[in-house]
């Protein structure tokens, strides 16, 4: 029997109580409920990840940083986070990492594995940054290399913000190709990806999708991955509170379908994570994430 199409992964620990914070950390439960109410997906099993192992975290992060993180210490290694630092938040990140590692492992049985969390792409080996304490995608890639040293991974990062943590971590790894398409004139301080596309404010659907299509063609001509990690940020959306891109909800659907087709046409499995999303109407963020699930769950 061939590969099934899509695995969905979720844990209630993904959710955080951050009243008044710009990061909508309760979006995960709302997305889960949206999936369970959908006529197509309601009957699907949603898999539950384990908490990430210490060994796995150490594949990317330094001992000194992890000591500070699990000690809930505000030091020069943790201070650049824009989230509180406490047991519940650190535990949430550990389950988020576990979800992406589980998704990576499930690509042996599924074409697509969707972690309804994760995408913590600003986290560096030795420090937190932004809303990111642990780098789940980098950890999953490093873990896959334990069994296949030459395993080739492509990161397609379509969040509003550059995936600077991943760009830094894999800058000298020829078996990992980092591609980030993001608004160029905002946070974070940029690292160098294998392919960076810096978008101007105000870009709309047609130009955005043309740049994505051209970029994927460039990558296809130069790099043949064994797996794709897609960070499907909802924040390029035209009504996002942190961005100035003008991509519609329809345009983001086409973006997701384009990435799906890229993987399907080359028969490459794909891990999908949520990454960011800060729409002025919170329901839009949830719907954009749901649309990504729908794009990869097409029957």
Automatic annotation (TrEMBL):
Gene Ontology MF terms: histone deacetylase activity; hydrolase activity
Domain called Histone deacetylase: residue spans: 21-280
Membrane-crossing segments per the record: none
Protein's UniProt keywords contain Hydrolase: yes
A Pfam family the protein falls into: Hist_deacetyl
InterPro entries: HDAC_classIV, HDACs, His_deacetylse_dom, His_deacetylse_dom_sf, Ureohydrolase_dom_sf
A GO BP entry: epigenetic regulation of gene expression
Keywords, comma-separated and alphabetical: Hydrolase
Top-level taxon: Bacteria
PANTHER family: HISTONE DEACETYLASE 12, HISTONE DEACETYLASE HDAC1-RELATED
Family label: Belongs to the histone deacetylase family.
Protein name (record): Histone deacetylase
